[in-house]
Amino acid sequence: MPLIIKKPSVYISALKQESKEPLHIGLSFGGTITDAEASELIDLARAIRQSKRDVKFFWIRFNGGDDSVLSTFNSFGRELVGASTISSFALEDSVGFEEVQCIRDFLIQNDTIRGIKFLRTNLCHLSFSLIRPFFMHNSSLRVIDMSSNTLIGDETIKDILDAINQGCVKLEVLNITENDLDRDVNSSNGISADGAKFISSFVSRSKFSWNFLHYEVKNVILTCFLNDLNANFL
Q1: pLDDT tens, position by position, 195-223
Q2: In a domain, 170, yes or no
Q3: H or E element at residue 72
Q4: Which of 2, 10, 160, 190 lies 20 to 30 Å (CA to CA) from residue 166?
Q5: What is the pTM of this model?
């Protein structure tokens, strides 16, 4: 679904309404955030945590910016801790280690998010290590979408899948795609053939009830675009 961004005040008003219709929330963090804008964003995070209205999809896009962005997002993340009505959560673009630090407590204490998406981020293995408990202990998690993240490699994928194996997650959809199909196969970034084999082994040995998705073709288990792919996917 496309990302639609509205002013925080619009979402705050909607969260106060007694409605069974789930919300879609889209936010953009970037540039310079004024004190007034920061206050409104923090109020929104608090409203999400306190409201009983379901948030079907919560998508946050980062566009870079000055210190006000990270400072605001840190306060925003603290207010989100304990929010239990978010079904799907997405982080897009200029997201790195510091941004993940801001929402670490929210994620690792959450057990209601059913789907999480990382799209074109700058997240690396260290970033995902911060939120490893999320992948172990969120019993509601069913969907992991990691699309076009240039710094994600074998170590990251193995760590996440090991966490899932050791925890209580019952995954249904796993989408891992590379955005740099022309990268040097000897590069330390990206998923190698060995990483692909590890993913294939994880899928084939898992006891999950998979729902399979791949472009227009239904019932395909894993989306994985790789150079030098030597794995046999189901």
Answers
A1: 777 877 887 777 666 653 332 222 333 44
A2: yes
A3: helix 67-80
A4: 190
A5: 0.85
